[in-house]
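> call design_seq(struct)
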């Protein structure tokens, strides 16, 4: 979708909290996939873990990182993960919690509507 709407829509990944840190809630699937990070203890560690996440997931568009105050997560209830469409400061689409609660088709429909292509 990022390629399809390039020049019309900006896509960003927002890294918020580590979903399954080894020191809090380690999941077996993370162990199998060797995605093992403890909860970042400072901004530098958060940047490092976020970078590893972006590389591991193969994200091809810009990523930004929520601060240690977690203001973005608090404002948008991004945990565990969600997709949003925001235009002119308004939320036009908010998915259900992912990864199972969101569907790219729903975001594509909201994008088409926002761009005037119903």
């Amino acid at each position: 979708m990022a390629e399809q709407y390039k020049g019309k829509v900006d896509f960003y990944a927002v890294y918020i909290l580590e979903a399954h840190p080894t020191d809090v809630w380690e999941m077996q699937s993370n162990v199998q996939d060797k995605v093992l990070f403890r909860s970042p203890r400072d901004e530098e560690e958060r940047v490092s873990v976020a970078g590893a996440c972006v590389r591991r997931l193969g994200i091809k568009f810009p990523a930004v990182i929520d601060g240690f105050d977690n203001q973005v997560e608090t404002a948008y209830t991004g945990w565990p993960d969600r997709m949003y469409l925001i235009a002119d400061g308004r939320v036009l689409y908010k998915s259900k919690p992912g990864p199972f609660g969101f569907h790219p088709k729903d975001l594509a429909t909201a994008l088409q509507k926002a761009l005037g292509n119903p």
